[in-house]
Design a protein that fits this description.
- By secondary structure, this protein is α/β, with parallel strands linked by helices.
- It folds into two domains: 1-65, Alpha-Beta Plaits, CATH 3.30.70; 68-284, Rossmann fold, CATH 3.40.50.1000.
- Helix content is 36%, strand content 22%.
- The strands form two sheets. A seven-stranded mixed β-sheet has the order 8-7-6-5-9-10-11, sandwiched between helices.
- The longest helix is centred in the last third of the chain and has 14 residues, at 208-221.
- The protein is elongated, with a radius of gyration of 20 Å.
Length: 284
Protein backbone atom coordinates (compact mmCIF):
# COMPACT_ATOMS: atom_id res chain seq x y z
CA UNK A 1 0.00 0.00 0.00
CA UNK A 2 0.98 3.61 -0.53
CA UNK A 3 -0.03 6.26 2.01
CA UNK A 4 -1.23 9.55 0.53
CA UNK A 5 -0.86 12.50 2.92
CA UNK A 6 -2.45 15.84 2.04
CA UNK A 7 -2.64 19.30 3.57
CA UNK A 8 -1.54 22.87 3.17
CA UNK A 9 2.09 23.47 4.14
CA UNK A 10 2.81 19.99 5.51
CA UNK A 11 5.91 20.23 7.73
CA UNK A 12 8.79 18.02 6.60
CA UNK A 13 9.21 16.59 10.14
CA UNK A 14 5.60 15.38 10.02
CA UNK A 15 6.24 13.52 6.77
CA UNK A 16 9.41 11.99 8.17
CA UNK A 17 7.61 10.93 11.32
CA UNK A 18 4.86 9.23 9.27
CA UNK A 19 7.49 7.55 7.09
CA UNK A 20 9.25 6.21 10.19
CA UNK A 21 5.94 5.12 11.73
CA UNK A 22 4.93 3.17 8.61
CA UNK A 23 8.37 2.01 7.48
CA UNK A 24 7.75 3.70 4.11
CA UNK A 25 10.38 3.11 1.43
CA UNK A 26 10.25 6.66 0.06
CA UNK A 27 8.51 10.04 0.32
CA UNK A 28 7.42 11.52 -3.01
CA UNK A 29 5.81 14.88 -3.76
CA UNK A 30 2.63 14.37 -5.77
CA UNK A 31 1.48 17.99 -5.93
CA UNK A 32 1.88 21.18 -3.90
CA UNK A 33 -0.44 19.75 -1.25
CA UNK A 34 0.01 15.96 -1.55
CA UNK A 35 2.76 13.45 -0.79
CA UNK A 36 3.00 9.71 -1.37
CA UNK A 37 4.69 7.46 1.18
CA UNK A 38 5.58 4.45 -0.90
CA UNK A 39 5.29 0.88 0.43
CA UNK A 40 3.89 1.95 3.80
CA UNK A 41 2.82 -0.59 6.43
CA UNK A 42 -0.99 -0.58 6.50
CA UNK A 43 -0.82 -2.31 9.86
CA UNK A 44 -0.22 1.13 11.35
CA UNK A 45 -3.62 2.47 10.25
CA UNK A 46 -4.78 3.43 13.74
CA UNK A 47 -1.58 5.31 14.60
CA UNK A 48 -1.58 7.09 11.22
CA UNK A 49 -5.21 8.11 11.71
CA UNK A 50 -4.47 9.54 15.15
CA UNK A 51 -1.36 11.39 13.94
CA UNK A 52 -3.12 12.91 10.93
CA UNK A 53 -6.14 13.99 12.96
CA UNK A 54 -3.90 15.64 15.55
CA UNK A 55 -1.91 17.43 12.83
CA UNK A 56 -4.90 18.34 10.64
CA UNK A 57 -3.82 16.26 7.66
CA UNK A 58 -5.89 14.30 5.17
CA UNK A 59 -4.67 10.79 4.40
CA UNK A 60 -5.62 7.72 2.45
CA UNK A 61 -4.30 4.19 1.98
CA UNK A 62 -4.08 3.48 -1.76
CA UNK A 63 -3.17 0.14 -3.39
CA UNK A 64 0.11 0.59 -5.28
CA UNK A 65 -1.43 -1.02 -8.36
CA UNK A 66 -4.41 1.37 -8.57
CA UNK A 67 -4.72 3.62 -11.64
CA UNK A 68 -7.29 6.27 -12.54
CA UNK A 69 -8.01 4.23 -15.67
CA UNK A 70 -9.44 1.51 -13.41
CA UNK A 71 -12.51 3.74 -12.98
CA UNK A 72 -15.27 4.64 -15.40
CA UNK A 73 -17.72 6.87 -13.49
CA UNK A 74 -17.36 9.74 -11.01
CA UNK A 75 -20.62 10.55 -9.19
CA UNK A 76 -20.86 13.81 -7.25
CA UNK A 77 -23.31 15.52 -4.94
CA UNK A 78 -23.78 19.22 -5.77
CA UNK A 79 -24.55 21.38 -2.72
CA UNK A 80 -21.57 21.78 -0.35
CA UNK A 81 -19.63 19.26 -2.46
CA UNK A 82 -19.13 20.34 -6.07
CA UNK A 83 -20.21 23.85 -5.07
CA UNK A 84 -19.65 25.72 -1.82
CA UNK A 85 -23.26 26.68 -1.05
CA UNK A 86 -26.56 25.02 -0.22
CA UNK A 87 -28.66 26.51 -3.02
CA UNK A 88 -31.96 26.24 -1.19
CA UNK A 89 -30.56 28.14 1.80
CA UNK A 90 -29.43 30.97 -0.48
CA UNK A 91 -32.79 31.03 -2.28
CA UNK A 92 -34.46 31.25 1.12
CA UNK A 93 -32.22 34.20 1.98
CA UNK A 94 -34.04 36.11 -0.77
CA UNK A 95 -37.21 35.60 1.29
CA UNK A 96 -35.55 36.49 4.59
CA UNK A 97 -36.00 32.87 5.65
CA UNK A 98 -32.45 31.55 5.56
CA UNK A 99 -32.18 30.70 9.31
CA UNK A 100 -35.38 28.62 9.24
CA UNK A 101 -34.48 26.78 6.04
CA UNK A 102 -30.81 26.29 7.02
CA UNK A 103 -31.87 24.64 10.27
CA UNK A 104 -33.96 22.09 8.36
CA UNK A 105 -31.11 21.56 5.86
CA UNK A 106 -28.61 20.89 8.64
CA UNK A 107 -30.93 18.42 10.37
CA UNK A 108 -31.45 16.57 7.08
CA UNK A 109 -27.72 16.44 6.33
CA UNK A 110 -27.08 14.97 9.78
CA UNK A 111 -29.71 12.33 9.06
CA UNK A 112 -32.17 13.54 11.70
CA UNK A 113 -35.03 14.22 9.25
CA UNK A 114 -36.09 12.21 6.20
CA UNK A 115 -34.70 14.06 3.19
CA UNK A 116 -37.88 14.08 1.08
CA UNK A 117 -39.88 15.45 4.01
CA UNK A 118 -37.23 18.07 4.73
CA UNK A 119 -37.18 19.18 1.09
CA UNK A 120 -40.94 19.58 0.92
CA UNK A 121 -40.91 21.59 4.16
CA UNK A 122 -38.15 23.86 2.89
CA UNK A 123 -39.62 24.39 -0.58
CA UNK A 124 -43.04 25.21 0.88
CA UNK A 125 -41.45 28.19 2.63
CA UNK A 126 -40.38 29.57 -0.77
CA UNK A 127 -43.94 29.93 -2.06
CA UNK A 128 -44.46 33.25 -3.85
CA UNK A 129 -40.76 33.97 -4.44
CA UNK A 130 -40.01 35.42 -7.87
CA UNK A 131 -38.27 32.92 -10.17
CA UNK A 132 -35.56 35.51 -10.86
CA UNK A 133 -34.19 34.78 -7.37
CA UNK A 134 -32.81 31.49 -8.70
CA UNK A 135 -30.72 33.26 -11.32
CA UNK A 136 -29.47 35.73 -8.72
CA UNK A 137 -28.25 32.84 -6.55
CA UNK A 138 -26.50 31.24 -9.55
CA UNK A 139 -24.92 34.50 -10.71
CA UNK A 140 -24.06 36.08 -7.36
CA UNK A 141 -23.51 33.27 -4.85
CA UNK A 142 -22.75 29.95 -6.49
CA UNK A 143 -19.04 29.14 -6.44
CA UNK A 144 -17.27 25.90 -7.30
CA UNK A 145 -15.48 24.18 -4.45
CA UNK A 146 -11.68 24.58 -4.57
CA UNK A 147 -10.10 22.04 -6.90
CA UNK A 148 -13.38 21.14 -8.65
CA UNK A 149 -12.20 22.02 -12.15
CA UNK A 150 -8.86 20.24 -11.60
CA UNK A 151 -10.67 17.06 -10.54
CA UNK A 152 -13.05 17.19 -13.50
CA UNK A 153 -10.19 17.83 -15.93
CA UNK A 154 -8.37 14.74 -14.61
CA UNK A 155 -11.54 12.64 -14.91
CA UNK A 156 -12.20 13.82 -18.47
CA UNK A 157 -8.58 13.22 -19.48
CA UNK A 158 -8.79 9.64 -18.21
CA UNK A 159 -12.09 8.97 -19.97
CA UNK A 160 -14.03 8.79 -16.69
CA UNK A 161 -17.69 9.81 -17.15
CA UNK A 162 -19.23 12.27 -14.69
CA UNK A 163 -22.66 12.31 -13.04
CA UNK A 164 -23.86 15.23 -10.92
CA UNK A 165 -26.79 13.97 -8.84
CA UNK A 166 -28.43 16.38 -6.43
CA UNK A 167 -31.22 16.66 -3.93
CA UNK A 168 -31.18 20.30 -5.07
CA UNK A 169 -32.61 21.72 -8.23
CA UNK A 170 -32.38 21.29 -11.99
CA UNK A 171 -32.14 25.08 -12.40
CA UNK A 172 -28.55 24.79 -11.14
CA UNK A 173 -27.50 21.35 -12.43
CA UNK A 174 -28.63 22.22 -15.96
CA UNK A 175 -26.41 25.32 -15.94
CA UNK A 176 -23.41 23.54 -14.45
CA UNK A 177 -23.60 20.69 -16.98
CA UNK A 178 -22.42 22.65 -20.07
CA UNK A 179 -20.17 24.90 -18.00
CA UNK A 180 -18.22 21.93 -16.60
CA UNK A 181 -18.69 19.40 -19.38
CA UNK A 182 -20.61 16.98 -17.15
CA UNK A 183 -21.91 13.86 -18.87
CA UNK A 184 -25.06 13.33 -16.76
CA UNK A 185 -27.10 15.36 -14.24
CA UNK A 186 -30.15 14.63 -12.12
CA UNK A 187 -31.97 16.83 -9.60
CA UNK A 188 -35.39 18.05 -8.44
CA UNK A 189 -37.61 20.43 -10.42
CA UNK A 190 -39.20 23.42 -8.70
CA UNK A 191 -42.77 24.15 -9.73
CA UNK A 192 -43.21 27.65 -11.14
CA UNK A 193 -46.45 29.46 -12.06
CA UNK A 194 -46.71 32.99 -13.44
CA UNK A 195 -43.00 33.53 -12.78
CA UNK A 196 -43.22 32.64 -9.09
CA UNK A 197 -42.35 29.53 -7.07
CA UNK A 198 -45.46 27.62 -5.97
CA UNK A 199 -43.78 26.00 -2.97
CA UNK A 200 -43.95 22.56 -4.59
CA UNK A 201 -41.53 20.12 -6.23
CA UNK A 202 -42.57 18.40 -9.46
CA UNK A 203 -42.38 14.62 -9.86
CA UNK A 204 -40.44 12.13 -7.79
CA UNK A 205 -37.99 13.64 -5.33
CA UNK A 206 -34.31 12.79 -5.81
CA UNK A 207 -33.62 11.69 -2.24
CA UNK A 208 -31.04 9.26 -0.82
CA UNK A 209 -32.52 6.26 -2.66
CA UNK A 210 -33.01 8.36 -5.78
CA UNK A 211 -29.31 9.24 -5.83
CA UNK A 212 -28.33 5.58 -5.46
CA UNK A 213 -30.77 4.64 -8.25
CA UNK A 214 -29.26 7.24 -10.59
CA UNK A 215 -25.75 5.96 -9.88
CA UNK A 216 -26.79 2.40 -10.67
CA UNK A 217 -28.76 3.45 -13.76
CA UNK A 218 -25.78 5.23 -15.28
CA UNK A 219 -23.36 2.51 -14.15
CA UNK A 220 -25.51 -0.10 -15.92
CA UNK A 221 -25.77 2.07 -19.04
CA UNK A 222 -21.97 2.34 -19.13
CA UNK A 223 -21.63 -1.40 -18.40
CA UNK A 224 -19.38 -0.80 -15.43
CA UNK A 225 -18.85 -2.83 -12.28
CA UNK A 226 -19.38 -1.36 -8.82
CA UNK A 227 -15.61 -1.27 -8.24
CA UNK A 228 -15.25 1.13 -11.21
CA UNK A 229 -17.41 3.83 -9.60
CA UNK A 230 -16.27 6.74 -7.39
CA UNK A 231 -18.89 8.59 -5.32
CA UNK A 232 -18.41 11.91 -3.59
CA UNK A 233 -20.71 13.50 -1.01
CA UNK A 234 -21.07 15.33 2.30
CA UNK A 235 -24.48 14.61 3.84
CA UNK A 236 -26.51 11.71 5.18
CA UNK A 237 -28.61 11.64 2.01
CA UNK A 238 -25.43 10.71 0.09
CA UNK A 239 -24.76 7.53 2.07
CA UNK A 240 -26.89 5.14 -0.01
CA UNK A 241 -25.27 6.47 -3.19
CA UNK A 242 -21.81 6.19 -1.68
CA UNK A 243 -22.46 2.60 -0.60
CA UNK A 244 -23.08 1.68 -4.25
CA UNK A 245 -19.59 2.83 -5.31
CA UNK A 246 -16.26 1.04 -5.23
CA UNK A 247 -14.69 4.10 -3.60
CA UNK A 248 -16.59 6.68 -1.55
CA UNK A 249 -15.12 10.02 -0.55
CA UNK A 250 -16.54 12.27 2.17
CA UNK A 251 -15.75 15.89 1.28
CA UNK A 252 -15.87 18.29 4.25
CA UNK A 253 -18.65 16.05 5.39
CA UNK A 254 -20.83 15.41 8.41
CA UNK A 255 -19.36 12.94 10.95
CA UNK A 256 -21.89 10.23 10.01
CA UNK A 257 -20.62 10.39 6.42
CA UNK A 258 -16.91 10.49 7.29
CA UNK A 259 -17.37 7.40 9.45
CA UNK A 260 -18.73 5.32 6.54
CA UNK A 261 -16.66 6.61 3.60
CA UNK A 262 -13.56 5.00 2.10
CA UNK A 263 -11.75 8.34 2.43
CA UNK A 264 -12.40 11.75 3.99
CA UNK A 265 -11.05 15.09 2.77
CA UNK A 266 -11.31 17.89 5.32
CA UNK A 267 -8.20 20.01 4.67
CA UNK A 268 -7.67 20.10 0.90
CA UNK A 269 -9.93 20.78 -2.08
CA UNK A 270 -11.60 18.43 -4.53
CA UNK A 271 -8.30 18.04 -6.35
CA UNK A 272 -7.37 15.96 -3.30
CA UNK A 273 -9.47 13.17 -4.82
CA UNK A 274 -6.98 12.73 -7.67
CA UNK A 275 -4.02 11.22 -5.75
CA UNK A 276 -6.43 8.69 -4.21
CA UNK A 277 -7.21 7.32 -7.69
CA UNK A 278 -3.73 6.02 -8.42
CA UNK A 279 -0.34 7.19 -9.58
CA UNK A 280 -1.21 8.29 -13.09
CA UNK A 281 -4.17 10.11 -11.59
CA UNK A 282 -1.98 12.57 -9.73
CA UNK A 283 -2.00 16.31 -10.35
CA UNK A 284 1.69 16.95 -10.39
Amino acid sequence: MNLIVQGHDIPTPSLKQLAKLTGAAAIEAVSLTAFRLRAADAGQRAKVAAFCEENQLDYGWVPASRRIGDFGLLVMDMDSTLITIECIDEIADMQGLKPQVSAITEAAMRGEIDFAESLRRRVSLLEGLDQSALKRVYDERLQLSPGAETLLAAAHAAGVKTLLVSGGFTFFTERLQPRLGLDYTAANTLDVAAGKLTGRVLGDIVDAQGKADWLNRVRAELRLEKKQVIALGDGANDLKMMSEAGISIAFRAKPVVRAQASYALNQVGLDGVIPLLGENGCAG
